[in-house]
Write a structure and sequence with these properties.
Blueprint lengths: L1 H26 L7 E6 L9 E2 L2 E2 H18 L3 E4 L14 H16 L3 E8 L10 E4 L6 H12 L10 E2 L13 E8 L3 H8 L1 H21 L1
Parallel strand pairs: 1-4, 1-5, 5-8, 6-7
Antiparallel strand pairs: 2-3, 6-8
Length: about 220
Amino acid sequence: MNKYKLLILICFFLITITLPKVTASVNSMNLLGKVIILDSGHGGVDAGATGNQIIEKDLNLILTRKLEKELVSRGATVYLTREDDKDLSTTTVNRKRSDLYNRAKYINKISPNMYISIHLNSVTNSSWRGLQVFYTTKNEENKLIAETITNHLKESISNVREIKKDNTYYMYKHITSQGVLIEAGFISNPNDSYLLRNKEYQDKLISSISDSIEIYFQKK
């Protein structure tokens, strides 16, 4: 009889210690049901900006893949405009325009709850630095998304610039779904470049962006 009591106590103990893990797993799925498209800028023959040991198209894809993994772990359904080193152009004439058009077309076709485009900045003045979120007025939610991401990133990352409205970008002014462009930093700046190559900083950045996306949807 004592043997059965001991067995019951052991089973109860094992069930008890596993319950918090199950609960935590369920509670972390805060993006369940949300469809998000991640657009990794450039690709293929279009390398984007280069400098300070960084090729933009490659780092864009690294950050995008990390963000995809994190968002999926939180329950989101994630699509990528590109999954490897290629662009979306279907012509050799006006290749860049074709690439941007097809990205916008792809995003509009899926009509996600949000799109996030990942790029890196570069200018001739190497003192310019910092992450910056750009938005268009094509969708009225874009500014709120930009503000939410920026405000949250400022809590954990020091090099964050103010949001900027820009309706001139060909691709983004043709996207009807809500979303923003994140310029993750200036590769022309030695400090930004160093951080962007650092795995720990990349993971911190991706976690903070994912948190801010959750915060945005929690407000809706």
